[in-house]
Structures are given as structure tokens and as C-alpha cells.
């Protein structure tokens, strides 16, 4: 019996012909086409074959997370079934899409929201993108969401606010007041008032000006006092850099009705748009429920508001951050945690945090509008 690997010569299989007696096949002449190199096709896996081998525990962990997000309404089932990529990619993609729809387009901020898996105590956390790293995860008990600013930028809002103040008395002050109050809940900003507060902490021993620091270090030596004052930021320096109303948290402001009236009726398009954005932001029902309370200085500001490019706000914020980095500090803006058996808790968070997310988008639009006046 001829094996399947033996070549068949003589034309017809089983014809009884001898291999030795068979006439050799003629070799066709080589052509240009036949001299080209050819390569065998590279085999490929079916789309349903995973590209990486995951540990069983980690697959179960991601499956639990996906089911949790489905139950919470973060992932739509019909979209999940047809999505490509790993399960954690689908979870992250759904989370990012939900946030993008709630915040809208941003140009001044770079918010980063992360999904974490944690154990029951919260002491072991790992972002879902690292689930397939070395080692098995402990059995997850909770999902945590944290958010921060990825790249703190300096924005010159002084020209825009001064112009608004010139258009309508207290309009610039009102817009700044709305920014400060709503940013405190949704996306903290380093404002002129914050610059004054931190100057007191950094340079003046917690006092309203530098007098105590000069008294303690220099006494009655006027030359030494002058030299020390020359090397530090003084209260007079800050007064010269910002208008008084920008430094006063209790500044007079327009009412909500007056702001709405300006948004509709003022002759200047710049003032109308600023009033419209500020009015919408002022009416957003933000919450401070998810603000992070950690030990150490907070440096997670969404942006530094300058009156002019490179003014004292930049120097003070840099000095403040450099001091904070020498010890424990907090750079997370917000945080929330949910037990994996309580998807209803995440649904409540999704409902409550939406005004804060909308406020981030409005803050971004208002800052961009003010900067355009420079």
C-alpha cells in the first residue's frame, strides 16, 4: 500500500508502474515571475481567541466588574455584546464615554478618571488596566473611582474679568465668585484669593502680612528688614498684582436675576456670553459629597488663574507645590467607592455626580471665554 506521503509517478495512482522505470518529469524553464520570492501566508487566530492568556482569578475579577457596570447602567448590554477588545477595555471605554457625554468638550482642563478594584479594607488597589499584570489579584470587594487633573495649566483671566467689571459694575466680581464657589465642589482652582491665603502660609507665618516675620527675623534692623522684604512676596506685592475685589471672598456680587438679565439684554456679546455661562454654572446643583479629605496639603488644582501671564499666582502656586512635595500631599480631586454587590450605590453616584461633571464643562468654557479677551 502506498503511503500518503509517497509521490505518485507515471500519471495514475495504482497503475503498477515502477518508480525506477518512470521517466523523470521535465523541469519547466524559469521565468522572471517564477524567480520572485514567495512567502507562505502567516497563520492568524480567530477573533474569538484571546490575544493574552489570563489567570483564572483575574478573568473572574474582570467578569465581576463587567457585571457590576452592567447592573449599574454604565454599560449598555447591547453595546457590550458586540464590542471588540478585552473585557476591561470595554469597561474602560464605556466609563470614558459616559464621562465625556456628561462633561462635554474641554480645552482648559485635562481631567483623568480612573476605575480601581480594591479589597475589603481598601488597602490594596489596582487600576483595571493592570489586572493582567504579574500575580493574582486578591478577591475584589469594591470598585473605586478617583479623579484628578493631569496637567495643571496657567490661564490669564484678568483681562476678561477686568473688562466685565468695566462693562457692568460687579459683573467681573460676580463671575469670579461663581467660579470660586462651584469650582470648590467640582474642580478646585488656584484663584487670587487662594494665592493670598497661601502667601500668608508660606511667607508671613500665617499672618495678614509680613510684619510678624520681619519682626521675628530682623527686629529693629531696618537694613535687614528691607533686604528680607526684597527677597519675599509682600502684601503690597499682592495688592499691586490683583484688584481688591478679586482677593475678597466676601465681595459684593450681582443677584442671579441681574446676571440672567445681562445674559439676555446686554449690548456686548462678550458680556452676554460670560453672563450666560456664569448663570448656567451658578444654577448647577453641585455637591461637595465626593471631595477628597486626606492628610497633607491639597495640590490637585484644575488650573492656576493668573491676572496677567506669569504673575505672582504662578510663583506662589509653584512654591506651595514644591513645599507639599517634600511630605505627604493629596492631588486627587474626588473619590467614591462602591461594594461590588451594591450596583445601586453606583447608580446613585452617577445621578449625583452629573451636576459636578456638567460644572467642569461650564468652568472650562468660562475660563476659555475669559482667556480670549487677552
How would you sum up this structure, described in words?
This protein has 374 residues and is α+β, with helices and mostly antiparallel strands. It is built from 14 helices and 6 strands. It has helices spanning 56-72, 77-81, 87-103, 158-167, 171-186, 192-203, 211-218, 222-230, 235-241, 244-247, 256-265, 269-282, 312-324, 343-371, and strands spanning 111-118, 125-127, 142-149, 153-156, 303-306, 334-339. The strands form 2 sheets. Strands 2-1-3-6 form a 4-stranded antiparallel beta sheet, with helices on one face. Strands 4-5 form a two-stranded parallel sheet. The longest helix is centred in the C-terminal third of the chain and has 29 residues, at 343-371. The chain is globular.
